[in-house]
Design a protein that fits this description.
Length: 204
């Protein structure tokens, strides 16, 4: 997929999801700040690195598969939702690691942040989803601005792709922020992590 198209879709979907979760009370900007402090410069560094795909893709893919198995296995024990409570040093350091991975893999980083927040016990299920959506939004804004500055135009297919992305984002965010039980959200996350992990390991 065209990088500009991908970033535009990420921006649109992340905007919809962030707004929905924020209206439901699951986004805390101050809790997101330390992760962004670490991720923004690290993502810039990661984007400039050229590592052998045979080195980092299987490693990152394996991490995602382990996370998928963990969340699928423990989904029924999701527990109560609670606001983000990550310590600043840990959040900044984690943000840097996620930013580096995001730069290397060309993703928004949310696929790494959500399982981290849940596994570390730093946020409840819906608060983790809302925080990650805002995290992706911030990163996609930066990436889209830089990409548009370099290419100067949008792909012709962008209205169709953005329309489909908007519909999917609206439905998913409504289910995730208000209707879907937390165990189901964790199972959905496990599926996403499984697909992403397998893609990194087996697809070029």
């Amino acid at each position: 997929m065209d990088p500009t198209l991908l970033l535009a879709a990420l921006f649109l979907v992340a905007s919809i999801v962030t707004i929905r979760f924020a209206r439901a009370g699951y986004v805390r900007p101050l809790a997101l700040l330390p992760f962004l402090v670490g991720s923004v410069p690290a993502a810039f560094i990661g984007g400039g690195l050229t590592l052998p795909t045979t080195l980092y893709r299987p490693l990152v893919g394996a991490v995602l598969l382990v996370a998928a198995a963990r969340f699928g296995w423990t989904a029924s024990n999701a527990g109560a939702d609670f606001p983000p409570r990550a310590p600043w040093p840990g959040a900044v350091a984690s943000g840097a690691g996620i930013g580096l991975l995001a730069g290397l893999t060309g993703t928004g980083g949310g696929i790494f942040l959500t399982p981290l927040l849940l596994a570390a016990g730093w946020a409840g299920t819906r608060f983790a989803a809302g925080t990650s959506a805002a995290f992706i939004l911030a990163n996609s804004v930066s990436g889209l601005a830089g990409n548009l500055a370099s290419v100067g135009s949008l792909p012709p297919a962008i209205p169709l792709w953005l329309g489909a992305a908007a519909v999917g984002g609206a439905i998913g965010s409504q289910l995730g922020s208000r209707r879907m039980p937390a165990p189901w959200i964790r199972r959905a996350l496990a599926v996403v992590l499984l697909v992403a992990g397998l893609k990194l390991i087996f697809l070029p």
